[in-house]
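User: Just a sanity check before I run the rest of the batch. Below are the structure tokens for the first item. I only need the designed sequence back.
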């Protein structure tokens, strides 16, 4: 009997323990359900933007309305929040904590950086307003022409964003191209240096003689003759002329600026010059290079296009007239059809200097060959032996042989260009590589050069004949 009673007591104790466990589990589940129910039925919090602390209170902006609200005692505003941060307000309009920042908003263009915290921006066409940059350091983080995200209701700019489109065209450091690497254009280069470098190297003399430096120049002539190369070399030489650490080259191709939306192309042009002025104000020379100018700045009223140039041309004229205040901004235009550019752009006082970059003659062609056909290239033994083992003389003779081949027929002069001559050298190198792979001798020979000349001339004649048929 005693043993049975003990077993029964043990069973009852175990059952009681299990019931107690179930009761505690049920109590915890009910507590969680009660908390979830309270959370679900609680009124929503309101998002606001923190502006500043005022004693134990804080100024916030919520839905465009500025308010002074209380703060939960456990929240240290000086440590936890910075102006522009997102906060949460409870139903009693008391700050209860922070919130994640909003990463979307309206884009605006920085027109001017006012101080370390504020900037003047342009949004929605020409709507100007002053905004405050979250995190400060506006002078270090922003420059004119940058795009920032702004909140129109709070007046804060959250961050700078990288834009495709026009931003991709702007302010690349100039390539390492100097005038010595350009062949066959000595006369044009001398004139460019007189027009651009002299005012920068001797500004006192220009002021003494009351002489205004040119604001820009136009390079015109057939394609492939070195207009773009000259513009890059100008940017490279400007840094030496003004003693700057570096210069900038804004390469803008006309068709890349065209936009179907009204006013966008004009905005692109304004952005380009705003960025140029920002860099120039820091002492760095800037070259704004417009390639294929006739695509954008056609004569107004010509009826050739959709007449969008009636607004684009005046925008460029306005920017050109404003360049005079900054001596280290140079505007260079290049065109194959200078006759199609609006006369207002071409007049003195805008693009003052006009330089024709013509097709090379035989003398210029030899100079161009010397830039691409150098003594460190592999040369066929027959080429070196014919020059008495002098490699410098060998490449000079090889270039003279190629020039003689190219200009053997006087009519070939109408096809010549620096680009064609470079292609001749590249094609001759390819011929030499193919011959070596096939088991031939190493090095460029006169046969390789002759074949390259014939192939390039044949292609040039074919292209010219095609244009004549289409015309």
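Assistant: Here's the designed sequence for the first item:
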């Amino acid at each position: 009997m005693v043993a049975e009673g003990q077993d029964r007591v043990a069973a009852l104790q175990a059952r009681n323990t299990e019931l107690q466990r179930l009761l505690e589990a049920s109590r915890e589940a009910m507590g969680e359900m009660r908390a979830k129910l309270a959370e679900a039925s609680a009124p929503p919090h309101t998002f606001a933007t923190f502006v500043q602390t005022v004693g134990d209170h804080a100024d916030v902006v919520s839905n465009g309305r500025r308010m002074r609200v209380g703060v939960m005692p456990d929240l240290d505003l000086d440590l936890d929040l910075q102006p522009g941060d997102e906060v949460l307000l409870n139903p009693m309009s008391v700050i209860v904590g922070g919130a994640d920042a909003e990463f979307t908003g309206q884009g605006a263009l920085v027109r001017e950086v006012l101080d370390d915290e504020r900037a003047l921006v342009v949004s929605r066409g020409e709507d100007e307003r002053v905004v405050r940059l979250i995190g400060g350091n506006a002078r270090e983080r922003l420059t004119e022409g940058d795009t920032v995200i702004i909140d129109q209701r709070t007046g804060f700019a959250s961050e700078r964003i990288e834009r495709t489109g026009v931003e991709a065209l702007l302010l690349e450091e100039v390539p390492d191209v100097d005038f010595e690497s350009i062949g066959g254009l000595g006369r044009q280069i001398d004139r460019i240096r007189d027009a651009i470098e002299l005012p920068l190297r001797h500004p006192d003399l220009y002021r003494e003689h009351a002489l205004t430096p040119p604001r820009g120049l136009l390079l015109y002539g057939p394609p492939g003759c070195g207009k773009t190369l000259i513009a890059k070399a100008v940017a490279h030489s400007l840094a030496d002329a003004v003693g700057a650490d570096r210069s900038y080259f804004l390469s803008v191709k006309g068709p890349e600026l065209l936009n179907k939306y009204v006013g966008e192309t004009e905005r692109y042009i304004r952005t380009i010059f705003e960025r140029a002025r920002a860099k120039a104000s820091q002492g760095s020379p800037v070259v704004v290079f417009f390639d294929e100018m006739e695509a954008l700045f056609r004569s107004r009223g010509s009826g050739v296009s959709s007449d969008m140039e009636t607004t684009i041309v005046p925008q460029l004229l306005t920017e050109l007239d404003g360049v005079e205040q900054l001596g280290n901004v140079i505007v260079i235009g290049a065109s194959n059809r200078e006759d199609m550019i609006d006369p207002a752009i071409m007049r003195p006082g805008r693009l003052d200097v006009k330089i024709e970059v013509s097709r090379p003659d035989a003398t210029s062609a030899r100079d161009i060959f010397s830039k691409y056909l150098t003594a460190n290239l592999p040369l066929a033994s027959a080429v070196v032996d014919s020059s008495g083992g002098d490699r410098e003389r060998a490449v000079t003779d090889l270039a003279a042989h190629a020039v003689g081949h190219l200009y053997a027929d006087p009519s070939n002069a109408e096809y010549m260009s620096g680009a064609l001559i470079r292609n001749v050298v590249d094609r001759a190198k390819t011929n030499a590589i193919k011959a070596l792979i096939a088991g031939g001798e190493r090095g460029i020979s006169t046969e390789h050069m002759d074949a390259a000349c014939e192939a390039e001339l044949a292609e040039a004649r074919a292209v010219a004949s095609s244009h004549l048929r289409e015309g």
